[in-house]
Amino acid sequence: MRLTFWAGFWVFIADQASKYLVVHWLDLRSRGEIDVLPPLLNFRMAWNQGINFGWFSGSSDLVRWALIGVALAICLWVFSWIRRGKQNRLAYVSAGLLIGGALGNVLDRLLYGAVADFLNMSCCGFENPYSFNIADIGVFAGAFGLIFFASEKKTR
């Protein structure tokens, strides 16, 4: 369980620190975009009120609080599930990545009313219209890690 805690902790810290540096310190909030290593890496400010790719976006507080509730419920479920069985190290790390990323986005919704997305990557003639953040990477990597590395073995 220590692996889960530390993986979640460091994803959460990296996510919030990167958001503070880019959104506030570099003032991406006002500037809108900064080319870092075009076209591979750019900062493009996007306030996501919905879930991935802006799906289920809504300006109502009900949507915001529902998404916070769903994210917290998923975190609690993943934590209790990973705790019950004997898992390998990669499954514990994956659970931490998912939980830390989800909590990073929950904090954004509490602070800003939306998730601060700013990473934009394009390559090879493909112009990516979407932005994401470190928390999103944690959630996706954690979910895929749990699919591939978690087992249903139970300890007695």
Stretches where pLDDT falls below 50 for ≥5 residues? none
Fraction of residues in H or I helices = 55-70%
Number of strands: 3
Q: Quickly give the structural class.
A: alpha+beta
Q: Helical stretch count?
A: 5
User: What strand order characterises the main sheet?
Assistant: 1-2-3
Taken from the alpha-carbon principal axes, the silhouette is: globular
Give the strand content: 5-15%
Alpha-carbon Rg, integer: 17 Å
Largest sheet properties? 3 strands, antiparallel
In total, the number of domains comes to 1
Please characterize this protein's 3D structure.
Helix 1 packs parallel to helix 4 (89-112). The protein has one domain. It is globular. 59% of the residues lie in helices and 12% in strands. The protein is α+β, with helices and mostly antiparallel strands. It has helices at residues 2-25, 28-31, 61-84, 89-112, 134-149, and strands at 33-37, 41-48, 115-120. The chain is built from five helices and three strands, in the order ααββααβα. A three-stranded antiparallel β-sheet has the order 1-2-3.
